[in-house]
Amino acid sequence: MLTGIHYTYILFILIVLITMALKRDTLIPCILGVFCMALYASKDIVFSIGGIFNSFVVATKELIGIILVISIIVALSKALEETKATQLMVTPFIKIIKNRTSAFFSVGVVMLILSWFFWPSPATALVGAIFLPIAIKAGLPAIGVAMAINLFGHGLALSTDFVIQGAPTITAAAAGVGVSDIMNDGMILYWVMAIVSIGIGYFMLDRDMKKGKIEITDRIEIHENETYTMKTKISALLVPLGFMADVVCMFIFDLKGGDATALIGGTAVLLLILITLINYGKKSLEKITTYIQGGFGFGIEIFSPIIPIAAFFYLGQLGPFAEAIGGSFLPEASQGILSDIGIALSNSIPMNKVMVCSIESTIGAITGLDGSGFSGISLAGSLAKVFGEAIKVKASVLAALGQITAIWVGGGTIVPWGLIPAAAICGVSPMELAKRNFIPVMIGMVVTTIVAIFII
């Protein structure tokens, strides 16, 4: 039986969705949602005001591991960029770029790998700066380089996030399933989305180039003979060796979720220390502080708007999230706000696999309209939990579907205000880049949703 607290939650979910559809930030609706739910539950305005802060604390505790590891890895990437180690690391890929096809997929693969380990935002600047001149010389226009960066990095890498596991951790927490479930059960969906979107994207680009609709500029000079110091070479060797060792350990010791994230984070810290010591000697004590500050600044900037949003959607569960606003407001038989809503839906609306997959995919895409991608995956996970319990299907598959559509839309592939970094580094219009990515990504989402219907 639904009570006033359930309807209050539903009301604010609708307000959040409308706000996203209007391309506005959702922090105020989410914060007001927490306050109103706490006020309804406790009838105490002082407690309700404190409930806002308590919900932030609980959400931060849930996300702090991911915030830390991303901050540390960004700090490491800044050190590698400053010492030119990153440029040296990608040199082998540059040698195989002979034509526009090899250029497109070489840029994409390097972006994918770096994004898995260093996050797409810092990887964009590195890949764009290094590969743009070579790609243009090989016949790939700047818009093609930007597409490869977007589709492989902000699309495939960010939506899968196999290494850092930030996205699946947030989604899994909201869906009430394991991180490994999100990754394993959604594996087919991840690759269907990638193959369809990237394949169609390159096909349309190549077709338009053959028709003369896209011109290639060779205005950028290429400096192929770069001299690297022994310190740079050692730094460039340590990083892949360190992370390859992590991957091996993950398989040998079956490390997943938080354990895998901790291993990556600890390795990144040790690599940062070693690289700083090797390159700066006595100045390393101060230099590493600068890198850490830059990395943590990035982490806070990225996650600061996510915490209030996650706090609101986490309230739909039982446990410490609901306790932040007073856990005694639900009936004894309640399984949590979202679970109760799911049961009510299953009893009142004829739901089936086609409907729930379509709704999950659509809502995920809508939540991506704010240009973040991450801000909507808590909702995607929460809805997956509701629908999974309503029609007795795998919530992990639904959550993966919602995660895919939210991040491919908002992570920086088709929302113009979300792909400005890639457009800027390649010197192209964000609107033009969004138009180029739109059809491939939309077709990819439709095909992926259809596949989800059959495997759910």
Main sheet summary: none
Compute the number of helices.
22
Structural class: mainly alpha
User: Helix-strand pattern, N to C?
Assistant: HHHHHHHHHHHHHHHHHHHHHH
The percent range for helix content is over 70%
Tell me about this structure:
This protein has 456 residues and is mainly alpha-helical. It has one domain. 77% of the residues lie in helices and 0% in strands. It has 22 helices and no strands. Helix 17 (337-348) crosses helix 19 (377-391) and helix 19 packs antiparallel against helix 20. The longest helix has 38 residues, at 45-82. Keywords: Membrane, Transmembrane, Transmembrane helix. This is Transporter. It comes from Anaeromicrobium sediminis.
Quick overview of this protein structure:
The chain is mainly α. 77% of the residues lie in helices and 0% in strands.
Q: How are the secondary structure elements laid out?
A:
Elements: H1 4-21, H2 27-42, H3 45-82, H4 85-89, H5 91-94, H6 100-118, H7 120-137, H8 142-160, H9 166-175, H10 179-185, H11 187-210, H12 230-252, H13 257-280, H14 284-303, H15 306-314, H16 320-323, H17 337-348, H18 353-367, H19 377-391, H20 395-413, H21 420-426, H22 430-455
Can you give keywords for this protein?
mainly alpha; 77% helix; 456 residues
